[in-house]
Structure to design on (62 residues):
C-alpha cells in the first residue's frame, strides 16, 4: 500500500551492489502518512507522501 493518493508516488526497484559487485534486488518506499483532509467540505482520510503534505497540496482537517 506504499502509494501516495495525490501524486501517485509508489515503490521504486533497483539493485543493491556489494563491494564484490554482486547484485541483489532492493526497493525504495516513499514516506507515506495517513492523514485526515478536507475535500469539498467533507473530511476523509487518505494516504499521502510527506513531500505532498509538506508542500500543502491538501488541506488538513483539524
Amino acid at each position: 500500500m506504499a502509494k501516495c493518493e495525490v501524486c501517485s508516488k509508489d515503490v521504486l526497484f533497483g539493485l543493491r551492489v556489494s563491494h564484490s559487485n554482486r547484485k541483489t534486488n532492493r526497493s525504495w518506499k516513499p514516506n507515506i502518512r495517513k492523514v485526515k483532509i478536507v475535500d469539498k467540505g467533507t473530511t476523509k482520510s487518505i494516504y499521502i507522501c510527506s513531500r505532498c503534505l509538506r508542500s500543502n497540496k491538501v488541506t488538513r482537517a483539524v
